[in-house]
Amino acid sequence: MPNDTDPEAVIRALDNVGVDFSIPKSALADFLGNAEFTPYPAIAAALLKVLNGRMLQRPVFLDVIVFNYEHSPGNPSPRQLEDVDIAVLEAAVLEGFNNRYAREETNFSSLLKPQNQPQPPLQTLSLVVEGFLNTQDGVTFVDTDNPQVEVATKLIKVNAEWAQGMVPQELIRQDNGWRFTNGDARLSVSNGEAEAGLRPVRAGSLSDSAYAWPAAGGTFSGEAGAEVRMLSRIRVGYRPVDVKLLVEAPKNGFAANSAEKARIALDPQVLLVPVEVARFFSDQIPVSNISMPGQMALWDQVPIVSGTTNFRSIDGSTAELRLAERAWDYWPTLDAEGLYTHLGWVSPDSIWGRAKIRFRLVNYIDIKTDNEHAAPVAGQGADDRRLRENNDALSNHPQHISDKRVLKVIFMHRIEPPDSPHPGRALVGDNCVGISSGASDKFAIIAHEIGHLIINSQVHSTQPNNVLNDPGPGTQVTDEQIGKARTWAQGFADFWPR
Question: Which of 202, 221, 298, 366 lies most in the core, judged by the most C-beta atoms within 10 Å?
């Protein structure tokens, strides 16, 4: 047994005997380090003792084993190794195995094999990662920090108490909505930079689990063992994240639908620029088209899932999952020119990505101000004083990331008075751009203003379709601009853990 004060060592030891987990690794580590208030340390120690020299033929989730143990007759919750009832523990493992793999094993010993014997492969189903470059030492490297992941899964029949027997999983997708009956699906994202939650904080992944849904419309049933291709989007950084599809059964865990586990990381040659967005608004000028979900969708191609059709139905008597139903309001796609656009703005990734540069939203702040700082009044021409004052306010805001260099993007209804022709403005030398949220011609204006920061000048290009052309920025960049962009982006390198 490894030192019980070292949760990481316990996790590694459990992995060696075929015990994995479905909760975030950070949460598991907390549980394993808390022998006073959780049963995890005692049960982990007992598992390692029982499996000494042997291992499970197929992995079983530790959190499911603990759940099953604590919900056994008498509701035991051990705090010391000697308190663990081995018969109850073996029954908990057996139940977790049967639920996960839709089996009906009755003998704990049938789950075991010698520890030094190669483990038979799990059901391996193809996984496709957007932006794939190469694979090294088991890590898939990609050229985008927000890849779409596509993976196949096979629907099966699962045991449900409410039905008093086996019922088929069923997936239905129609247009932008989908329903999963007798189950649910999620893409598990763990380790690396996964423990960030849904808010765009620092270097974290999108979340420790992301929604997954059928890639094509139709009805798919476990009655016939239908294979379904599922889509999801994640955020990755330079630290590899572990990704696998998990399909939930009605009771206590996951069915045998897990796809091949993949480790995914951003290619080290891609330069990642951290972005802090601030919305300046007033009671009369709400700037309501700017929001955190919309900015996640713009900078990181994160789908916006409808809050009105996102629910799970739980059976009232058995507490089993009956169905999960969701729909998305927005799903990121590329246009015919290979550009990604949201709310009229072309994503800067679409343009500066040619320089192997990507932008990641790491902070979002709503700042209430007066009307003039949300929309400067007429009569001052191309006057950027209000934008500069807003930049000062952002820099002094308690939520502003001040310990590391970030690209600041300020949205106002107008950045300058209405008689000014400028929908955007770069504050050269201050890593800040201002964007008019009410601009009628948005197109590549954000990438255009970032371009001024890159070249450290307000000078425009005379090339008709260049991103720095004025008026009407295009979408092309020159080799010289690419070189300057990479030098500029290197200045943010210390933001990211490696």
Answer: 298
For residues 177 and 324, what is the distance between their CA atoms, to the nearest angstrom?
A: 11
Q: What share of the chain is helix, strand, coil (3-state, %, to 5)?
A: 25, 30, 45
pLDDT tens per residue, range 319-341: 889 999 999 888 888 887 788 99
Residues ≥6 apart with Cβ < 8 Å to 19: 44, 47, 51, 56, 59, 60, 61, 62, 65
pLDDT score of 201: 46
pLDDT (tens digit, 9 = 90+) per residue, 78-92? 999 999 999 999 999
Of 64-73, 106-115, 354-363, where does mean pLDDT reach its minimum?
106-115
- Evaluate whether 359 touches 340 at the Cβ level (below 8 Å): no
Residue 462 CB: number of other CB atoms within 10 A?
9
Q: What is the DSSP string of 393-429?
A: HHHTSTTS--SS--EEEEEES-SS-TT---SEEEETT
Q: Which 3 state secondary structure label does DSSP give 57? A: coil
Strand partners, 150: 128, 231
In angstroms, rounded to a whole number, what is the distance separating the alpha carbons of residues 32 and 48?
14
- pLDDT surpassing 70 at residue 255: no
Task: Return the SS3 of 201.
Answer: coil
Give CA–CA dist 16/10, Å, rounded: 10
Q: What Cα–Cα distance (Å) separates residue 248 from each residue in 70, 377, 385?
A: 20, 56, 55
The answer to whether residues 57 and 112 touch, using CB atoms and an 8 Å cutoff, is yes
Beta strands in 223-319 (DSSP E): 227-233, 241-248, 262-266, 271-281, 304-305, 311-314
